[in-house]
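LOG
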Amino acid sequence: MAYSIGIDSGSTATKGILLADGVITRRFLVPTPFRPATAITEAWETLREGLETTPFLTLTGYGRQLVDFADKQVTEISCHGLGARFLAPATRAVIDIGGQDSKVIQLDDDGNLCDFLMNDKCAAGTGRFLEVISRTLGTSVEQLDSITENVRPHAITSMCTVFAESEVISLRSAGVAPEAILAGVINAMARRSANFIARLSCEAPILFTGGVSHCQTFARMLETHLGMPVNTHPDAQFAGAIGAAVIGQRVRTRR
């Protein structure tokens, strides 16, 4: 059996995938610690434990150059495109929103990379932004869907993390319901993301990946602003790691 491991060392989370003959058989997910190499090593040891042969290891993400035992290192843009096509073969565009950045990837009919945009200069519109606002209102990102279900969003004017936090506190003091504020923040993020996607004139089907893709409220609002369907997948947060594992599988097959 041919084994390939892909590890995506992100700024917020470290994700790992084991492919066995092209099938996902193990997953690994932990918050990225102060020393990301520690999580990479843990992912590698956990995913390969008990295997009869040593897997091919491909690293991607911010921390991909922090260890010296990988067989290959690949940029995250290539990996996210491949991972998206693995999860949803008809995908023509990927919107990935992680902890500290967001990116849009455009693919052709064969799944090849056509173009991409990346925003890693501003935390607004990222998982970190959503986490800060949620904490300010005494809740967590994991609870957002249940809190904001069927809630009319309140208008949010600022998308700067610092100013938005101040605005949220002011709105709460003025008596605006926290669920309406949260829905408003998600709606503002979705609108910002839709404008970001529109810069590439992306075609459907679109796959929403990254940690924020677990928020179904965000996905629905993104669909509304884009005017086209946005697909999600239970393994969407692992797209980068999946793509890395696919690359490793291809390299091993050619040998």
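LOG (cont.) second protein
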Amino acid sequence: MVVQIILFRALKYFIVSIFIFFLAARVKAESKKDTLVNVAWRDTLKIRKAQIFNTEESEMLYFRPKPFQFALNVPSDIYTMGKTAFSKKNLPKLGVILAGSALLVLVDQPITDAAKQFGRYINLNPARASKTLLEFNIGGFHVNAMEIPDNANSAIYYLGEGWASMLVAGGLYSYGLVASDYRALQTTSQIAEGIFALGLTTQFLKRITGRQSPFRAMESENPVPAGDWHPFPKPGKYQKSVSNYDAFPSGHLATAMATITILASNYPDNKYIKPVGYSLMGLLGYAMLNNGVHWISDYPLAIAIGYTCGKIVSSRGHQVIPKIGHDKGATSVLMPAYLGAESLGLSYRATF
């Protein structure tokens, strides 16, 4: 069973990564990447090679990410997320998010019922179903090498299971290696970093809150409107019946929000990332109501966590230098530069 899952996911990632690789080529054509330069790394005397990318409002200096640096950054990301959330400046915002979530709990059941009713009205099957396109036997194991969603709701829900973000990262990584594009490589590293940080954060919160998923609440002998809460469930009970305890907050939406935030931060001139990404998030949110995986009150905190994580992670690996004015015809920037023989200086860059 484990071999089957690994082979299926690996083949699925590979096929879609090829598709995204060709899409990424279009991004390069619009990136206006300059030649390699040597600059000081932030406020230190350390010299690193960087690539300059022009955007409408700034010049972005990208450094090549170190192998597996994203994994080393995860503890710092989680600490910074907590520090940011409970800072004096953000406490009122956190209060609004939690209060809004509490109010939504009061209408969770009718909203879920309405979502399911609308799904029936438009003939949107809520069942999670897939169809096998390619299967074979290896050493006595039956392997489903390629599966696709078998209904529209499953296709939408498929986007939120985490593999979509990994496929985007895989496509960008393939492109970054071939084209020696530091921005694509950094974006890949940031997405991987965000997925790991969010996975740990949301799992920690789920194991504290212990909220029951809608489909579990409706299947129980004594259904509780908006589901039951079992704070701090025992690890054994949690693992035995995960869906009885893991609804709050939604890891699906947190991951989707972080991925969109990271992509938009690294490609600010791409006007399609946010509208397309947020539209898909809306569809994903509805699909999870329709199939009974989440309540709507699971969403506000998840979106806030995903956005915060995306902003923290996307601040790594590059420097943003604002342009003087926003005229398309002329820009200038002053930056540290490497002059040779371990000496530093200043470089004035002007474009007319």
